[in-house]
Write a structure and sequence with these properties.
heterodimer; A: 287 residues; alpha/beta; 6-stranded mixed beta sheet; 4-stranded antiparallel beta sheet; B: 5-stranded mixed beta sheet
């Protein structure tokens, strides 16, 4: 397993070490992995991403991205890296196409066709419109596709689906999956547990600048979930809904009887959601 | 280097789409209009007279009535020193030799023939009494062999050029940087494989292009082909690099536009003190002469003179290029650490 991002004992302070936004965090991300960094606002997610993308200085601890040690700034690192920001930051006075064309000329590696990128996120019809005429969601999509213009090997995404309607959000998630299938390693920062659950191979829960746990969503659900089945069935012309354990023998027998004797309308496994697990682990919500 | 020009192309396009670009051009046009329409080439002359009167004439009332703008001095040396400090003055020396009253009029040298005749007539009116029978002998002497004085209209040009080329850059580059920071554009640029210096240099180049364009049209409108435009461009480039580099360096110490503006405003005000000597040449202490605006103003002045000192101009071009480069280096080093914070 090749490690692409390595972080050891990372600290960061905005207040000259009076308090830390990030405290002694360590983690590795393997090549090809989608790693979710989950936590509420102010938890230290964006600070960590800022350090890993060179936007914030590395104050204390060690961090490397690919072959680049973040202690020394080397701008060539950005040829293999893509960064999408939570706040859209495109040139409002340039058109969508001009924004991407300008950005593509800054790279030393082969870049993607700007029009193709705009098509990917449904902005091709407004390619020649100035970005300051765009809605917030459109600007967000433009920021998102700009981050993939250099076919990044390591892709940092900060809240990539925030503020997007479900259909566009689904398109964005599909693009992330597809790039990951092509080999991109993704560092996903979000407070949206559903997105993390759908996309991530592993997630880290961060709160108050500290990582509380790192594991795969599946392992977390197995460890913290209750393994229930919710079944709705019709008995004597009456709709009945029951939660039955898949571990307790008595419940297993009852489930078997229901399936054999009654008309089952719906049946769902009741896994714990990542959000429920997060609250259980950290004692805090995500907002 | 190609990334610098790509960034510069983008910044220039953004500037052309912005308001400041047009404000600068409109200001240049307004300045030209005011200079050509409202400002006469020469304001009405209001000379001071310095006079030295030989002791042998003390008992004779040679001066019918001492005008308000006449100052009597004790010696020829004192007269010349006073005139050197006051470029808007004329000297008169009255002596007698073999019963002949000699009147020597000492001029700065830049006075026109018409003005000389007027001065001569005026002075005669002050001094020659009806009662004294004298043989008049008047000589006119110039203080400098190639003396020059800019016309009143041209005299304002160095001030405009210094403000337009060097001082505006301080403010504008700070505004460009903080605007980019506010909109998160600096961060987007910082995560591309580019150097911070190319980001800063690109902004400075936009300001330089605008400074070159507006300065050249203003100078051409007022003095046409009477200046060396190659030297003018070198001066604009050098002084502009200095101004922008200083602006970037000051900006690098602040994280908000307001705080940076306070500092920039203070620096500009201090630098502008250098212009006092430009208008009052007799006041030229060392602390004023070391302020950057002083050599800038006088370099532009030398450029506008017919026999200006090219050595002085070139020396200042090199000096400000060197200082500007050093300031830009330090500003880049600082911004490498804190531009995106």
């Amino acid at each position: 397993m090749v490690i692409l991002i390595k972080v050891e004992g990372l600290f960061h302070s905005y207040t000259k070490e009076k308090s830390y936004a990030v405290k002694d965090i360590s983690f590795d991300i393997a090549d090809g992995e989608v790693f979710g960094f989950l936590g509420p606002s102010g938890a230290g997610k964006s600070t960590t991403q800022g350090i890993l993308t060179g936007i914030l200085p590395l104050q204390k601890g060690k961090a490397s991205v690919g072959e680049y040690d973040l202690k020394k700034r080397d701008s060539s690192m950005f040829n293999i890296m893509g960064v999408s920001f939570e706040q859209s930051n495109v040139y409002g006075k340039l058109t969508a196409l001009e924004n991407l064309e300008f950005y593509s000329k800054l790279f030393d590696v082969k870049t993607m066709d700007p029009m193709e990128l705009l098509k990917l996120v449904g902005l091709d019809h407004v390619a020649n419109n100035k970005a300051n005429t765009f809605s917030k969601g459109m600007k967000h999509r433009l920021t998102f596709v700009r981050s993939m213009i250099n076919n990044p090997k390591i892709w940092f995404l900060d809240e990539p689906t925030t503020g997007l309607d479900p259909s566009i959000a689904s398109t964005i998630k599909n693009i992330i999956r597809s790039k990951n299938d092509e080999g991109a390693t993704v560092f996903l920062t979000t407070h949206n547990m559903q997105v993390a659950d759908e996309l991530c191979d592993r997630v880290a829960f961060i709160i108050d600048g500290e990582i509380k746990l790192i594991d795969s969503p599946r392992n977390l659900k197995l460890q913290y979930g209750e393994n229930l089945v919710n079944v709705e069935y019709v008995k004597n012309n009456e709709m009945i809904s029951e939660n039955l354990s898949l571990i307790i023998d008595e419940d297993k027998i009852k489930l078997y009887e229901i399936i054999n004797n009654y008309k089952v309308e719906t049946m769902h496994t009741k896994e714990a959601t990542l959000e429920e697990i997060f609250i259980k682990v950290t004692g805090r919500g995500l907002q | 280097m190609s990334k610098l020009f790509v960034t510069f192309g983008k910044d220039l396009k953004l500037s052309i789409n912005g308001l400041y670009f047009y404000i600068e051009i409109i200001m240049a046009i307004v300045f030209i209009a005011v200079m050509l329409i409202a400002v006469p080439n020469e304001f009405e002359s209001n000379y001071n007279y310095y006079a030295v009167i030989d002791s042998s004439l003390a008992e004779i009332n040679v001066l019918q009535e001492q005008p308000e703008n006449m100052i009597i001095v004790n010696s020829r040396e004192e007269l010349e020193e006073a005139m050197s400090n006051d470029r808007n003055s004329i000297g008169v020396s009255m002596t007698t030799l073999n019963n002949t009253l000699n009147m020597e009029i000492i001029l700065q040298g830049h006075e026109s023939e018409k003005l000389r005749n007027f001065i001569k007539a005026e002075i005669e009116g002050y001094f020659i009494t009806q009662e004294i029978a004298v043989t008049e002998h008047i000589e006119i002497e110039k203080l400098q062999e190639h003396p020059e004085k800019l016309s009143d209209r041209e005299n304002i040009l160095p001030v405009y050029l210094t403000i337009n080329v060097a001082l505006m850059g301080l403010f504008i580059i700070a505004a460009y940087i903080f605007l980019d920071k506010e909109e998160g554009l600096v961060k987007a640029y910082a995560v591309a494989p580019v150097k911070i210096w190319s980001y800063l240099a690109s902004k400075a180049m936009v300001i330089l292009v605008l400074g070159l364009f507006t300065s050249i049209i203003v100078v051409f409108s007022i003095v046409q082909f009477r200046v060396n435009y190659f030297l003018l461009m070198l001066m604009i480039i050098s002084f502009n690099i200095f101004g922008s580099a200083l602006g970037v360096l000051i900006t690098s110490f602040y994280n908000s536009m307001i705080k940076a503006m306070e500092a920039l405003y203070a620096v500009i005000l201090i630098m502008m003190l250098g212009s006092i000597t430009y208008f009052i040449p007799s006041f030229n202490p060392l602390w004023i002469r070391v302020l950057p605006v002083y050599p800038m103003l006088f370099s532009f002045r030398e450029l506008l003179l017919n026999h200006g000192d090219k050595g002085y101009i070139l020396q200042n071009i090199l000096l400000f290029l060197a200082i500007g480069s050093v300031l830009f280096y330090f500003a880049t080093k600082r911004f490498e650490k804190n531009l995106t914070i």
